[in-house]
Amino acid sequence: MREQLRSREPSAILTGKMTITTPRSDRFLSEERFRLFIEAVQDYAIYTLDPEGKVTSWNQGAERIKGYTSAEILGQSFSIFFSENDRREHKPQQELQTAAREGRFEIEAWRVRKGGAAFWASVVLTAIKDASAR
After folding, report:
1. Burial class, 77, CB count within 10 angstroms (exposed 0-12 / middle 13-18 / buried 19+)
2. Are 2 and 20 in contact (CB under 8 A)?
3. N or C: which end of the chain has fewer CB within 10 A?
4. What is the model's pLDDT at position 11?
5. E strand spans, the chain
6. Is the separation of the CB atoms in 58 and 74 below 8 Å?
């Protein structure tokens, strides 16, 4: 936010900068609310992956749709959601690489549930990078 202060003389303009900061506790509460919201969503599978494709978080919707509990899936490769043929063709790695390079990957394709049943899915992978763009 920028704030300009003007003196009574028309030729003088003072420019200042105002910074608004959020205390850490407010930020923590905001992040915690967001985490709880994501965990409660039941109609969409929302989960996070590390750069190698290992599952690092898992919501209730993902459990309902894909059939794995958090305890079963955390730390596993997301390639488990692909058919054997797609894994042979390296599609999981290709999708991760595209998301990392372009910031996003989107497709409608067949995926596999815990019991092996195939289902049609709308998939969006979005790269979330830290301050150093990693």
Report:
1. middle
2. no
3. N
4. 41
5. 2-6, 13-17, 47-49, 55-58, 104-112, 118-126
6. yes
Please give the residue range of the domain that contains residue 83.
23-126
pTM of the model as a whole:
0.71
Q: What percent of the chain has pLDDT over 90?
A: 60
Number of domains in the chain: 1
CATH of the domain at 122: 3.30.450.20
pLDDT by 10-residue block (mean), the chain, 134 residues: 41 45 65 71 87 94 96 98 98 97 96 97 89 62
For 78-104, letters b (16+ CB in 10 Å) and e give bbbbbeeebbeeebbeebbebbeeeee
Domain assignment present for 38: yes
What is d(CA 60, CA 28) in angstroms, rounded to the nearest whole number?
A: 22
